[in-house]
């Protein structure tokens, strides 16, 4: 019995504990990201934001979640019931499973696989299926138009994101996310690869369907887009999935360009702060820019969105790969793979 515990049960229990230790903070962060968004945009528009439920409105996310949980789930009569219910679950689950390879500190990662960046890219690519399924299964032309828009948008910007990630991988020589962070000990990649970092972050806005690229949810013409027929927990899962993807993309930006868990300077006041806290600070900074952009910029037209992705970002990211590869070869800076 002791051997069964040591070989099979204890590793399973320990993995389950680590999963809970990752998922619970992510869900709590998602809940309070909605609160932070309303407070930040409220401050930028010179109004209060949530301030009634609990002290300073801190219990507002809990009240919103309780309201959605208690509401009736309404399924349209013409909808495909099975696909209609699976779609939000798929979107939410994909937003959580991607965290398996995110390193919070050296050695503090659920699955330290050597192709972590490919895993992340694969998971983010699968996210479009949940939205397409929702749009098709709703049996509504507005939902279907929103889903088609989202699919085209996510595919378009994933191409340039892939090339930008390649520029980082060329500088590191590894697809392991921990190796990418450790390669930035002397200098964060945002300094030599600043144009690529800017394009990557703007692409994450489009990838997560956030303002000013929230074409799939454009209220003016699509009445909320692909989730127009959803209510109660179906809508809540889409909502949670979108905000969890925002946090995930901010974590990817932090790891690829902002040094992950590494402090900005190797000096005593900075090194005393633990690595996971540094990563959380960088993620919070990226999320603040998400909110800042929403409060500041008007929504793009759809043709402008596509032109930016295919005619501006794609050539620039391709040129970035060529330039970075050329510099690395010319100055004999090619890292050893491993």
Describe this structure in a few short sentences:
By secondary structure, this protein is mostly helical. It contains 12 helices and no strands.
For this entry, give a set of tags.
mainly alpha
- Classify the secondary structure makeup into a structural class: mainly alpha
Order of helices and strands: HHHHHHHHHHHH
Number of helices: 12
Helical residue percent band: 55-70%
Describe the structure.
The chain has about 350 residues and is mainly α. The protein has two domains: about 1-70; about 75-330, no CATH class. It is built from twelve helices and no strands. It has helices at about 1-45, 60-70, 80-95, 115-135, 140-170, 175-180, 195-205, 220, 230-255, 270, 275-295, 300-330. Helix 3 runs antiparallel to helix 4 (about 115-135) and helix 9 packs across helix 11 (about 275-295). The model has no long low-confidence stretch (mean pLDDT about 85).
Describe the secondary-structure layout.
Layout: H1 2-44, H2 60-70, H3 81-97, H4 116-137, H5 141-172, H6 177-182, H7 194-207, H8 219-222, H9 232-257, H10 268-271, H11 275-296, H12 302-330
Helix pairs in contact: 1-2, 1-9, 1-11, 2-9, 3-4, 3-9, 4-5, 5-7, 5-12, 7-9, 7-12, 9-11
């Amino acid at each position: 019995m002791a051997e069964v515990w040591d070989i099979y049960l204890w590793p399973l229990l320990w993995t389950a504990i680590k999963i809970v230790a990752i998922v619970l903070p992510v869900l709590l962060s998602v809940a309070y990201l909605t609160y932070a968004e309303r407070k930040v945009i409220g401050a930028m528009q010179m109004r209060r934001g949530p301030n009634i439920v609990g002290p300073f409105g801190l219990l507002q996310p809990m009240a919103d979640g309780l309201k959605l949980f208690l509401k009736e789930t309404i399924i349209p009569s013409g909808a495909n019931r099975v696909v209609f219910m699976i779609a939000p679950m798929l979107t939410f689950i994909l937003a959580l499973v991607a965290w398996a390879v995110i390193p919070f500190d050296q050695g503090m990662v659920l699955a330290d696989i050597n192709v972590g960046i490919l895993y992340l890219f694969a998971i983010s690519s699968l996210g479009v299926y949940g939205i397409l399924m929702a749009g098709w299964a709703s049996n509504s032309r507005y939902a279907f138009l929103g889903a088609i828009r989202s699919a085209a948008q996510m595919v378009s910007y994933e191409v340039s994101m892939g090339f930008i990630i390649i520029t980082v991988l060329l500088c590191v020589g590894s697809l392991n996310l921990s190796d990418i962070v450790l390669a930035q000990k002397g200098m964060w990649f945002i300094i030599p690869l600043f144009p690529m970092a800017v394009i990557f972050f703007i692409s994450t806005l489009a990838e997560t369907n956030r303002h000013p690229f929230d074409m799939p949810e454009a209220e003016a013409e699509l009445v909320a887009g692909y989730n127009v027929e959803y209510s109660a927990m179906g809508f809540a899962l889409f909502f949670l999935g979108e905000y969890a993807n925002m946090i995930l993309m901010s974590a990817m930006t932090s790891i690829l360009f902002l040094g992950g868990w590494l402090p900005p300077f190797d000096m005593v006041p900075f090194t005393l702060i633990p690595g996971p806290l540094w990563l959380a600070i960088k993620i919070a900074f990226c999320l603040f820019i998400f909110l800042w952009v929403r409060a500041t910029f008007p929504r793009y037209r759809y043709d402008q969105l596509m032109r930016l992705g295919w005619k501006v970002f794609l050539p620039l990211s391709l040129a970035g790969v060529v330039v970075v590869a050329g510099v690395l070869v010319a100055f004999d800076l090619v890292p050893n793979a491993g």
